[in-house]
Amino acid sequence: MAKKHKKDKPGNGKAQAQGAVEAGSAVVAADAGNASPSKADGKLSRKTYERALAELHVELVKLQQWVQHTGAKVCVIFEGRDGAGKGGTIKAITERVSPRVFRVVALPAPTEREKSQMYVQRYIPHLPAAGEVVIFDRSWYNRAGVERVMGFAADAQVEKFLTMAPGVEKAMVESGIILIKYWLEVSMEEQTRRLEARIHDGRKTWKLTPMDLKSYSRWYEYSRARDAMFKATDSSWAPWYVAHSDDKKRARLNIIRHLLRHIPYEGPKREKVALPKRQKPGDYVEPDYPWKVIADTVGEREPKINEARPEASPGGPG
C-alpha cells in the first residue's frame, strides 16, 4: 500500500521534482530565446528534443525510485490511431529506467482459449503489483476500437464492454492503482506519410501489418468508434487525455511531462557516492587464451541478401 504523500513545502522532494519537470519545459523556451527550437516545417528540432528529454529522463528515474520505495502501483494505457506514435512514446518513457519496474505489455491476438474467457480476463494478470509501473501498448480498449471497426466483435459485445469498463476501472483505482489513459491522435496526412514510410523504409517494414492496410481506409469508422468510447469511458476517476502527435518529438515530451505531473512522486534524498579502491592484482596473471574477438567492421558495406557472405568460423556464426 502506498504511503501518504507530504504536502509540497519549499525545498521538499515533490517541490523539487515539480520544479525539474518545469525546467524540462523551459528547455524549449530557452532555446527559443537564442535560436529557433523548431525546424523549417515547424517541428521540434532534434537538439532541443534531446536536451528536454534528458531532463525528463532524470525525473522518470526519480519516479521509479519513488514507486519502488512506496510500493505505488501505476498503470498507463496508450491507445490511438495506427501510426500515431504510441510505440515511440513508450520507448521514450522506458529507455532510461529499469524494465523490472517499468513493464510494457503488448498482447498478441487472443488465442481460442482466451476468446472463450471473460473479455478482460487476459489483461488482469498484467496489472501492476506494488512497486511497478505497467504500460499497456494497446489494452482492453481493443474491443471498443479495432475489434469494433474490423468486425471481430458484435455490436452487443461492444456495448456491453463500454457499459462495464468504467466500473472495472473504478475498482482498479479504488484498489490503489494510479490509472492514466492516453489517446494519441494523428492527422490523415501524417498517418499516410508514416504508413508509406513503413512500406519503403527497410527499418520499419516490420511495423506494417495486414491489419494496418485494412484499417487505413476506415478513418471515419475509427472516428465514430473513438467518439463512442470517449463518451462511455471518460470518467472522473479514469479520464482520457488526448495528445496530438503530428510532431512526434513534441508529443513525447508533452506526454512525459503530463505523466510526471499526474503522479505525486517525490525525488529521493541521495547520499554522496564514491567508488571504492580496486584490489591489487596480487598473483593474478592474464591468461594466454585465443579469445574470439569481434572485428571492427564499422564503415564496411553490409552484403545484400543475394550476395556471398563471409564464411562462418568453426565456433559459430562469423
Features of this protein?
318 residues, Rossmann fold, 10 helices, 5 strands, 10% strand, globular, disordered N terminus
Report on the biggest sheet. 5 strands, parallel
CATH architecture annotation: 3-Layer(aba) Sandwich
Distance between the termini: 51 Å
Regions with pLDDT < 50 over 5+ consecutive residues?
A: 1-12, 26-36
The CATH class name reads Alpha Beta
* Helix count from the secondary structure assignment: 10
Kindly report the CATH topology. Answer: Rossmann fold
Could you characterize what this model shows?
The chain has 318 residues and is an alpha/beta fold. It has one domain (13-261): Rossmann fold, CATH 3.40.50.300. 42% of the residues lie in helices and 10% in strands. It contains ten helices and five strands; from the N terminus they run ααβαβαβααβαααβα. It has helices at 13-34, 46-70, 86-94, 112-115, 146-149, 155-174, 188-200, 210-216, 219-233, 248-261; strands at 73-80, 102-105, 132-137, 177-185, 240-244. It has a five-stranded parallel beta sheet with strand order 2-3-1-4-5, with helices on both faces. Strand 2 (102-105), helix 4 and strand 3 (132-137) form a beta-alpha-beta unit. Helix 1 (13-34) packs antiparallel against helix 10 (248-261), helix 2 runs parallel beside helix 10 and helix 6 (155-174) crosses helix 9 (219-233). The protein is globular, with a radius of gyration of 24 Å.
